[in-house]
Amino acid sequence: MADVMDAPVSRRPPAGGETRTGRIIGISVVAALGGFLFGFDTAVINGTVAALKAEFAASSLGLGLAVSSALVGSAAGAFAAGPFADRYGRRRAMMLAAALFIISAIGSGLAFSLWDLSFWRLVGGLGGGV
């Protein structure tokens, strides 16, 4: 049996490795903050349930829909994001997500009924899923 020797391995990082590491850490932090925003959204909407019930004379069903619509939207957005990004590119997918967030924020702020608020939260959830 012949002896096989491995080629020597360089222990030096590739050129520009420190810059890449910093960028990767930055991207990871931003991505992790996106996950924290779901918890923040849940806390914020739960803090407004009593006010929503009083303002819109909402039923339990309507309140449940308003609270959960963002999560339903995010599931649908996550399901559609991959094929969309494959077809149109990641940059356009991120631009779509940002546009959905902006539209959702404006629509939620101007909501005239609980169903309207639920719709705009669904749109925001789509952006979050993308």
How would you portray this structure in words?
- The chain has 130 residues and is mainly α.
- The protein is 80% helix and 0% strand.
- It is elongated, with a radius of gyration of 22 Å.
- The N and C termini lie far apart (55 Å).
- The model has no long low-confidence stretch (mean pLDDT 86).
> How many DSSP H or I helices?
5
Distance between the termini: 55 Å
Shape: elongated
Number of separate domains: 1
- Major beta sheet, specifics? none
**Class per helix and strand makeup:** mainly alpha
Mean pLDDT score: 86
In angstroms, what is the radius of gyration? Answer: 22 Å
Brief rundown of the structure:
This protein is an all-alpha fold and 130 residues long.
Describe the structure using short key phrases:
single chain, 130 residues
Topology of helices and strands:
Blueprint: H1 17-47, H2 49-56, H3 60-88, H4 90-109, H5 114-129
Keywords: Membrane, Transmembrane, Transmembrane helix, Transport
Subcellular location: Membrane
Main location: membrane
